[in-house]
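ARCHIVE CARD
SHELF: 3
SLOT: left
DATA:
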Amino acid sequence: MFRSKVSSVTNEIKQLKKSLFKKDSFAQNFAFVFSGKAVAIVVQVIFAPILARIYSPEAYGVFSVFTAVSVNLALIATLRLEGALVLPRENEEFGQLLKAVVLIALVFSGLITLISLIANRQIVFLLKAGDTGWLYYTLGPVVFLISLFQITNNWVIRNKAFKDSFHYGIPVNISTRVFNLVYGIFTKGAAHGLILADILNKAITVFLRLVFILKSGLTFLSIRLSWENFRGLVKKYRQFPLFDMPGSWVNLFSAQLPIYIVTLSFGALAANYVGQLGFAINLLDIPMGLLGSSMAPVFLQRISEAQHSKPDEIGRLTISLFKKLLYIGILPFAILTAFGDIIFAWIFGARWEMAGVFTAYLGVYYLFRLISSPLSSVFVVLNRQQKLFAFQLFLFVGRAIVLAIGAFVLRDIFWVVLLFGIFNAVAYFLVAIWILHLTGAPKKALVIETIALVLIVTGGLMLLRFVLWPW
């Protein structure tokens, strides 16, 4: 029995090693994406304690609000049609769709520019931007840049250009972090330094993606996009603007609701609270960026191929990814849940202890988000965007209710974040189970195993924390 298991594991290792050297294999593509993300995360971890001592919570608050607004608008700018770029089997249809998405984003961004020029004073007053209100004049161009970032990302996935992305991603991340650091030192932590560094990162990434992608040729430029083609493409991929875009927007906006509600309801303390919360979320996004974002594009590409050739494989691939993300993510998020305030105060300084408390409240939520986010590609591939949209509407309503209770009934920032974390943990766990159901994967045993693992690991670490560092 033991020898049989050892032999089985040995064979799996050999197969994995073989796959790593096979061009365009799942293992190789994931290795490139994961390695690039890993280096970026290491760079972020190295720079985060330094930047936390240069930029104040208020500066991070300004950055969080501007980013929330621009990303929110960018999601609408493309009608989410960039998500369909991985689906066309013919290059001619892809070229037409690409031009259509860029055109839609350009028109929308132009409209945003006009509005920001006319109503800048009202925008600044509503968002309490103060001295950084001038940044909102750039909202239109920033929205278009983010749209191009999203478009080129899906282009990379379609072309399986993960290796090229790995090569240029590392120097871009390092250089923009250095810029962030140097600019912060010379401006004494000016809030717009965080925003400029983020814009610079996206601009350089888009440019380099285009350079590497276009090395394969410019034939798509000769593909004609007529009004008839435009209408036909929008009609063919109408699931994206009708269900995926509203659903994704509702999901994004509801995820950002704490930022907006805290900004509007906590007066002079709002900037500090938003900065603390934004910093906590930024650190929690590290595992998401390393694992979830690395696996998502490769998983999407893999199940897209399976849908055409072996639809029955989707269930097996989905449950396999679920387990991997659960086993990998449980310990880091459990540690943050138990020791978040202590870790943040020690690494980033005493003024960030509140961010550590917020991290603890959101830890289990981010574990289940890590699991379910890459799996949500199943909704797209199985053409079930309307079901995802229904869940996202439920998520929005639930988030609004618990945030309103925390902010306007209990009037306490800690209750705001705690209720938000509890509700999201339950909701994302349920949607992960739902995805397993849609693929036909067995789920009962996995549900029991997941709940038991979370309770044992998180509960054990919480007990250890109270023994070593009582409140």
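SLOT: right
DATA:
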Amino acid sequence: MKTREFRKDDLKIWVIEDNPGDLILLQEMLIDLDFKSKNIKHFRDLESFEEALTSDAPSILFLDLFVPGSQGIETFQRIKPISSRCPIIILSGLDSMDIALECVKMGAQDYLVKDEMSNEMLDKMIIYAIERFSNTKEIRVSEEKYRILFHSIPLAVIMLDEDHNILEINNAATQMLNVRENIKGCTYSSIFSEPSSKGLALDGLQRSKNVLIKLVNNDEKARYLEQASTSNMTSGGARYLVTLTDRTEIIENEINRERIVHETLDEERNRVSSELHDGLAQYLVVLNLHLDMLKGIDEKVDQGLILCQEAVSTSLKLVRSISYMLSPPDMEKGLIPALKALFLRLQNVNNVNFELVTDDKTLKSDLSFFDEYSVFRMVQEFINNSLKYSECLKISCDITCQDGHLCITLNDDGKGFDIEAVQKGLGLINMKQRAFSAGFELNLQSQIGVGTSLKLYSEKLIPD
């Protein structure tokens, strides 16, 4: 900023001082510095000064902190409101410098030790005080313009310090987050109630990448916010600028679309399963009967018929197995009975050991509140992949209640795989889409040589 020029003839200097000796010395110095005596006003107490303010105002004020009716810091606090209208220089004795410094922290421009006054020092102090005051005033105006702009923009914006504490939050963010109290100073992660959402928000800050975060209000209505963030270093440490965009409508449309897709696929599976069970399977049964009726004609023919019947029986078992996998009849009894039947069925046809564990809460709860069919399919997909690729000896499934949420954890002790290499696989993509549309968080982990685990965590609470 440029140094401001001012005419000494126009400068109004007011002095609040009850010591005649100090006052005369200050006045003489001011006149020696070419300040006009007619513009120098003197007040012995605060009452007369406040009365004069009703009709006029100083360009600069010299203030003695110890005057009749007011002592020390109390004196400055009483006239502090005028510090926004003109610069204030504290007149201090050697024994009151600490109080003078405190006043400077509170808004005074400077302090002057009476016993050390000189013309040169006084002249520079006045010039510097006016300059600092003008600069401060410009900064305040600029900050106010910025604050108005910050709170008026429709985009939700939050500023954080290096510890992720909230420094500023604009009106749009306050409304979006449904905040009814001042959260400045609170940690940013406290906005989100779900542990996974907290972790995702902080991960997005650290990596400066866009993330989609689920926000659950007190009414448990979920909203989806896209978080974008940037960071920069300042003298006070790292600063983060966070913007939030409400993507709830888009995400809900996507969820509905995925749900319709999966419902359509499931209906088609049920139709194919019914056709296999009621159509092809019945034809195979009839074919087997006809083959049995042809026996006894010739010994060689009988041997061929036996081989044909064995092939038909094998085909019949395969058709019934495919039909069962497409549409498990046990799902009519609920998720846990269906999974128990699945594990028992697999236990009898595989060398792999299957283990299903449930807790009392989930056994007694009505899980039809959740999309049980989608959960069953995700468990089934994990098991099929483990049997096909992992070379495991054991597959376990734990169904528990964690903090009121349904949690299903599957593990195999197979050879594991590189999780990054399979992220784009169609099976995992389908599983994630099904979990998303069913309202479950999906977390797949694998370690080579150790095994693979899948965790499904419901967004909704288990109903009481």
